[in-house]
Amino acid sequence: MTNSCRMAVLLGVLALPVVSVAAENLQPAAESSRYAADEQAARDLLAKAVAFYREEGDKALAVFSRKGPFTVGNLYVFVVDAQGTLVASGGPSLMLVGQDIGVAVGDEARARLMRLSEGGKEAQVEEIEYPFSDWSLGGVVARKHSFFQRVGDHILAVGYYKARAESAQALSLLDQAAQAVASQPEATLQAINAHDKRYLQDDLYVFVVDLASKRFVAHGFNPRLVGSDFATLTSPDGKGIGQAMLDIALRQGHGEYDYQWRNPVTQQNEPKRAYLRRVGNHLVAVGYYLPQ
Fold it and tell me: What residue stretches are annotated with the Single Cache domain (predicted)?
């Protein structure tokens, strides 16, 4: 991939959503265990980089920006100064050194990063998720989970990529959500609409439709859809998908349905499969993007 193509992909992620991860908002056990090794490796590399920077000062920036002890597989260190400028990177964002970090991670992630520059004390390790291009997958835009820490006038960070969800993970999330809707419907709907991490995993989310009104009552990614008419929902290619899913739930009680949908991470229309289940008066569903 040429530098110009890489730049285009980087710029293409700016409008995508960023997810702030608070320390008390823990990941689900399944997701946590899935990325445990990646998370520990990223934390370890960040700790190593922080120690090196404290010892070497700004001389460390050149070391961070080349292959060596601070590049491990897909992991690398990147550094931002107090003005928000990217000043070092051991990864694909090296081409953006000297530019504002917002070009690489988007405005929301930049704002969270820069909050560390406020005040005089060095911060604890924090974390954030945002869309970024995974060069190991040919520049495919994926979610990146980064840990970062302020040291002096700079913010040091290391992140790892999160893989796309697969069929088994979607079915597992549907099982979990269906059981919760059956036992505690109101609390579960509120949790889904509040982006509870139990119902928002990788690029998977739960949505729930009231079968009587045919309207969304919960949506794990976009709660603004709550109250809208699911029966009239169409795919980007004009196919009526809402009523088709309702028909499956009402006639069979469960099933699956394939359709085109806009992936909020890649901003592309991609094939998606929804697993559906009727739970009392609700349609509960989870969809995942099919491999291309």
Answer: 157-243
CB-CB neighbours of 115 under 10 Å = 13
Write out the two tokens for 56: 């070497």
pTM of the model: 0.56
CB neighbour list of residue 274: distance below 8 Å, 6 or more residues apart? 245, 256, 257, 258, 259, 285, 286, 287
CATH level 3 topology of 3-162: Beta-Lactamase (3.30.450)
| 160 in Cβ contact with 42 (< 8 Å) | yes
Q: Which residues pair with 20 in a beta bridge?
A: 128
Beta bridge partners of 288: 273
* Domain 167-289 homologous superfamily, CATH: PAS domain (3.30.450.20)
Tokens of 88: 């070092």
pLDDT tens series, the chain, 292 aa: 444 444 433 333 333 344 444 333 334 444 555 678 889 999 999 999 999 999 999 999 999 999 999 999 889 999 999 899 999 999 888 888 999 998 878 788 888 888 866 755 677 898 888 877 655 555 556 778 899 999 998 999 999 887 666 788 899 999 999 999 999 999 999 999 999 989 988 778 999 999 999 999 999 999 999 999 999 999 999 999 999 999 999 999 999 999 999 887 667 899 999 999 999 999 999 998 887 6
Strand partners for 289: 272
126: helix, strand or coil = strand
Query: What is the distance in angstroms between the CA of the first residue and the CA of the last residue of the chain?
Result: 19
Q: Name the phi and psi angles at 143, rounded to 5.
A: -80, 140
**Matching residue, tokens 């229309």:** 269
